[in-house]
Request: fold
Amino acid sequence: MVNDVDLTTPEIKPGVIWRIVDENAVVVSPDTGDVHVLSQTGAIIWQMLANKNEVRDIESYLVAHYIVSAEQASQDVAAFIRELKDSGLLK
Reply:
């Protein structure tokens, strides 16, 4: 796991608006009004975050459902969460 990212249960920032559209997630930042379109995998991770899943559960899901190692899933999820935080979508 990457140490510079909170890998417990990141929370979606209050006021974020999102919808699933054609297996992608469309997410709108409450602060800037920026629209972010997340891929199918990003949408799955987003929904798991919305359901308050812990990061380790998200990583386990990806390993079980995709061809990805535990190490790669950990790195990818940490990087994705960092991007979401940098975009102001997570607390």
